Amino acid sequence: STAGVDDSAVIATNDDAASCKRFAVQQGYWKDPYIQHLVRPGERKAPEINRGYYARTQGVRQLLDQFLRLTRCECQVVSLGAGFETTYWRLKDEGLLPRGYFEVDFPAVTSRKCHYIRSRPPLSKPLTEGGGQLQIEGGTLHCSQYHILSGDLRNTEELDASLTTSGIDKSLPTLFMTECVLVYLTPEQSSKLVRWAADNFPTAMFVNYEQVNMKDKFGQVMIENLKTRHCHLAGVDLCADAESQKQRFLSVGWEGAELLDMWTVYHSLPQQDVQRIERLEFLDEVELLQQLLQHYCITWAWKDPRGLGLASLGF
Ligand code: SAM
Fold first, then answer.
1. How far separated are the first and last CA of the chain, in Å rounded?
2. Contact partners, residue 27, CB within 8 Å, separation at least 6
3. Among candidates 104, 86, 93, 90, which has minimal Cα distance to 39?
4. What is the distance in A from the centroid of ligand 1 to the CA of 114?
5. Which residues pair with 147 in a beta bridge?
6. Backbone phi, then psi, for 141, in 5-degree steps?
7. 213-224 pLDDT, tens digit each
């Protein structure tokens, strides 16, 4: 399916995320030698934004790596709305590759990613190192266990078909990730997606990072404002929203769900590294960072009929 006119703004959010990540990497917040080959250097970002991206990437990373270690990499990862994420390369460098790593995004995004991979050896070489054959066709890539697929997350039938064609094994423990993605779907669409994952993958985990408590009440515009100007929203019921974040999973077949706001996640990350990044740039208003991070959260949900211990993962 082709993205409509309205989707172009959503597609552009990937460029924003990628350039913020590149900037934070350049400032030394975390290491990622690959992102520079996917996005041009953007303009300078405020220290709060960099710390926010640090919490986001490291928070998602904690859960992902815990899942990979618990399953001893006998598992699959599916990143929905993956954009220009470079996680596959990191996992390869760290010897943590799962049996299958799948990414899905709109064709307009995946075709650009595939083009960069094809034309930039620092991206393509690691993929073919073990003798893997790089197969790229438009916005689709297959290379040993790495698959980039183009599709629309609102169409779960098509999503299921393209993952199946790419060799996904529904019986393996599978981690789904949506990093700043579900907010672009309607509640019905995201619920359908989350239900599809629960219905089709008996042993699974879902890690979702997104803005809390603006979605229904204030809409997209407020989210953008918050990101750029940190406007404080008074009178928003955080607890009710947190509960609805969990219910979104529990009501469609997930066995358990937890969530933490990003201010809490930030303080639950390895503190030595947090202290290191806090010395990188001076931050004069800590309350601003707190407000910003409290408006985002990570929710994780699990289904674990075989008792692998997925319920024990977290911060
Ligand atoms: N997950 C990446 C990250 O955190 O760096 C990208 C996040 S970006 C804010 C949102 C991504 O979701 C975009 O790449 C966008 O194209 C994708 N997306 C949103 N709605 C989608 C849909 N219906 N189908 C496929 N991709 C979608």
1. 38
2. 50, 280, 281
3. 86
4. 16
5. 102, 142
6. -130, 140
7. 654 444 444 444
Q: Are strands 204-211 and 296-303 parallel, antiparallel or unpaired?
A: antiparallel
CA–CA dist 83, 4 (Å, integer): 17
Full-prediction pTM beyond 0.95? no
Ligand 1 contact via 152 beta carbon (within 6 Å): yes
Structure tokens at 93: 């460098």
Q: Domain locations in the chain?
A: 7-312
Q: Write out pLDDT tens, residues 24-52.
A: 999 999 999 999 999 998 889 999 999 99
Distance 279 CA to ligand 1 centre (A): 32
Kindly give the distance from the C-alpha atom of residue 81 to the centroid of ligand 1, in angstroms, as a whole number: 4
7-312 CATH, one of 3.30.360.10, 3.30.930.10, 3.90.1150.10, 3.40.50.150: 3.40.50.150
User: Is the distance from the beta carbon of residue 82 to the nearest atom of ligand 1 less than 6 Å?
Assistant: yes
Closest-CA residue, ligand 1 atom 11, reads: 81
Ligand 1 neighbour 32 (Cβ under 6 A)? no
pLDDT digits (tens, 9 = 90+) for 205-215: 999 999 886 54
Would the CB of 181 count as within 6 Å of ligand 1? yes
For residue 109, the SS3 value is helix
| ipTM attached to this prediction | 0.99
